[in-house]
Endonuclease/exonuclease/phosphatase family metal-dependent hydrolase (Actinomycetospora succinea), 290 residues
Amino acid sequence: MGGAPVTAPHVTTLRVATWNLWWRFGDPDRRRPAIAAELRDTDADLVGLQEVWSRGDRHLAAELADELGRHVAFVAVPDPSFWTDRLGDDSFGLGNAVLSRWPLRDVRAEVLPTGGGPEAQILLSVVADTPAGSLRLVTTHLTPALTDSARRVAQVRALARHVVDAEPTDLPPVVTGDFNAEPDSDEMRLLEGHLTAPAEPGLLLADAWRWATPPARDDGATWRSDNPYVAARGDPPSRVDRVLLGLGRGRVPVGVESVGLLGTRGRPGPDGEVWPSDHAGVVVDLRAGT
């Protein structure tokens, strides 16, 4: 038979994760090996990290990058006193980071609106040139107080504006972070743009957990009552950490292959079991290409 040869589809799987590392709380030196082990086992191509400690020119993300063979970008919050006052130690800073299998470029940071609150939150935005094309990843950590939904609304508007204004990439933008908000909250409905008018016209940022299959679809809590750090507080479970995928953007089509959690168990340590963080993280396998 004649005709043009058929070209086999080219599909690349990219693993993206997000994780809050609980800053300097809960015996951080004991937790650090467990954090590294969890990230090594997850083996994500791109990871957005929140509550990353820094001290002088050192920070945890750089140490993890060296240990795991990753590239790194880090940005510190301008005023960490909201956090340092809780420990009585102002020698440490706090920020967001990205670990990447590939070099990072177009690294940007932006302070989010405080709304008159006590602490400033930030976003970190980077571009990685993956085998499937360029991809912008944004990671952030919104204000944590349960009563601060109005402040988070202002923060997600700034976050959405950043995504819209950023230089387009081959793949759709991916937004990761600890949003400190339930899925049906005002701030998350605005940011996703599915259930109300989006924070920026035409911007849809779909929660990757929508692609999860049962029984995970019905769970997905990242603030979990089976974590002893959470159980000690008596808090109910909550899904506050997310990987969001920009829909209808980029020239390379991207789909979600799988969604899961990381950091949902304790790990053996030299003096007994240790949980790496008070949060579980989210890990997503994306299928890029046609």
Remarks:
- The CA atoms of residues 14 and 162 lie 23 Å apart.
- The first helix runs from residue 28 to 42.
- The radius of gyration is 19 Å.
